[in-house]
Each structure stands twice: as structure tokens, then as C-alpha cells.
Amino acid sequence: MKQKRNWSVLLGAAFLMATSAVGPGFLTQTTVFTQSLGASFGFVILASIILDIGVQLNVWRVIAVSEKRAQDIANLLLPGLGLLVAVLIVLGGFAFNIGNVGGAGLGFNVLFGISPELGAIITAAVAIGIFLVREAKMAMDRFAQLMGLLMILLIVYVAITSNPPLVGAAVKTFLPDQIDLIAIITLVGGTVGGYITFAGGHRLLDAGVKGEASLQQVNTSAVSGITVASVIRIFLFLAALGVVSKGLVLDESNPPASVFQLAAGTIGYKLFGVVMVAASITSVIGSAYTSVSFIKSFHRSIERNENWFIIGFIVVSTAIFVTIGKPVHLLILAGALNGLILPITLGTILIAAHKTEIIGRYKHPLWLTVFGLLVVLVMAWMGGYTLLKQLPALFG
């Protein structure tokens, strides 16, 4: 019975991380990069998967061994740093949750012709319903797994109908015509950036999967999460590649919807609606849960009323979308800050991994430290570059 329960928790954490990553932005990024890079985008996906696994193993292992959430680890290293990290995570989570409820609203619009605002309210109601049940976290795990599997099945179907050039895709994955570093960094930030980095690690901690003895389980869950997200990205890439390789032009206003429609007609367009709703609702849930997990250790009342704070997070995000839409400047700022969150948080984790007062006698693998340091340096450079580029748009 215990082994079965552990597997349920490990898969729940894996799918929570994966479905948090697979939101409206994930679908759009994958489609747009496939259109611009063609089969060579396969190399970008391969490189990002390797980097993603390195990031997740570093973060999840240190959280498990220290038996502390990321903000508490940060505060132990430098008092006040945990609060800064929490503010960055919550700000990014709020901004992207506005985009997530908006994406779900568009999905409902495709399916039923209702307004995106009404679709967003339905999305919020579903997400809130999950946190109202007695075993809310178990319900969250089950919902993430169900939606993740549904997305995989539908995207695989569309990939098959688009008939992509599989041999060409395989060759270019290892021998690309061009290497786009910005695309690699964008995919890494979109898959394990911001709150997503900690979604599964904090979920495992909440479920009692912690301590050095649990590291094998932590590794399995972390790699499984990246695998699920990567499977979805790979088949979406193949679906888009099948469409663009035939010379068909995607609609710039909604590239992923265009892929589904061109590959499978009207049915494909409706399937896009289902995928968009599934991707968006799970991202709403993952963002709200993980963002609140970053503040609940600051006051006992937050921890005691965690589900109500999560519900409040969802309500406020939805209200902002319904009343004023997507605040462009807020989303631009959050996107730029998201590029800086990963190097700050991962850098903190890497330092903590070698502090005996935090991790005890545990010896963090050298290759993971080197790997993580590389990601910190590259993401810090790209995040700073992106933020500087966006400043004129914010204050001009």
C-alpha cells in the first residue's frame, strides 16, 4: 500500500510540474519556433531537455535533503533573500495566471463560442472546486495527471494526421542547420522558469517525500516531470512541422490553433480548444498552488488556511482578466523578471547544496553543481539582456 501511495505522489508531483509548464505560452512558443527553425528546432528541444533535467535535479534534491521550501533555504543563506524570492515568484505567478485564465477563456470560446471572459470564469470555478474538496492536494494530483494524459493523446493524434517528415526531424535534431541559443534559453525559462521550478519539489515536500533516503524517488519524479512536458512538446513540434513542411502558412494571430486546424480540419480546431483548456486550467492550478507555497511559511495563518489563499489567488487573477483584460506592461515586466528568477533561485540552491548547516552530511554531485552553474550564468545574461530590452516599452 505504501509503495502505491508513493507512486501516486511521485506521479502527481511530476504531472503538476509538467502541466504547470504546458500553458498558452508553451503552445505558442513551440509552434512559432517550429515555423522559424523547421526541423532544426528538434535540436533546441533536445538541448533544453538536458538543461531542464539538470535544473530540476538540483532544485528538487536540495529541497528534499534540506526538508525546507526554497524561500526558507534562501532565508537561511541570507536573511531577507527568501522574502525577495517569494515576491518575485508571486508577482510572476500572478501575471502569468492572468494569461492562463485568458488562455482557458479562449479555449472555451473555440469549443462553445462563449466569450473568453465567461470561459475564464468557468476556468476559475473548476480550479476553485478542486481546492474546496477535503483531499484537495490529492484531487490536484489526479486532475493534473488526467489533463496531462488527455493533452498527450490529442496532440499525438494531430501529429499523426499532419504526417511530419520524421527522418528529417530525427537527422536535424542531432545535425541542425542552425543553433538558436535564444530559442534554447526561452524553452528552458518556459519549462523550468519562475514558479514552475519548484512546483513538484514543494509538492513532494508537502507529501512527506523528503530526506536523503528519498533521493531516488525525487530523481524519478523530477525526470518524469520533464519527460511528460517534453513528450507534449515533441509531438506538438512534429504536428507543426508536418504543417509547415507542406508550405502551409500559419495564422499569426493564433499559431497553435492554426496547426491543429490545418492538420485535422474543423475537428482539429475543436481539439485545439480542448488542449488549450486543459493546458490553461492545469497551469492556473499549478501557479496558484506553488505561489502560495512560497508565502505560507511566513505566517501560521497562511499555512492553516492554505487552500483559501490559493482560491483567493485564482479569484484575483480571474477578476483582473475579466475586468481589464491582460495588462500588457505587467506581463512584459513579469516575463522579463521570470528570466531573472531562475538564476537567482537556482544560484541560491547551488550555494545551499554545499552548506552543511542546511543539507547536513549530504554530498551534492559535482556534475550537478557545474551543470547548474552553467544554467545560472547563461540565464542571468539572457534575463538581464531581455529586461534591458523591455525597459523602453515599460517606461517609454
Automatic annotation (TrEMBL):
> Which Pfam families does the entry link to?
Nramp (PF01566)
The transmembrane residues are 37-55, 76-98, 110-131, 143-161, 181-201, 222-244, 271-295, 307-324, 330-353, 365-388
Transmembrane helix listed as a keyword: yes
Provide the alphabetized UniProt keywords: Membrane, Transmembrane, Transmembrane helix
What is this protein identified as? Mn2+ and Fe2+ transporters of the NRAMP family
| Any Gene Ontology CC annotation | plasma membrane
Q: Name one GO molecular function term.
A: cadmium ion transmembrane transporter activity
Alphabetically, which GO biological process terms does the record hold?
Answer: iron ion transmembrane transport
Where the protein is mainly located, per its record? membrane
Q: Give the organism the record lists.
A: Pontibacter indicus
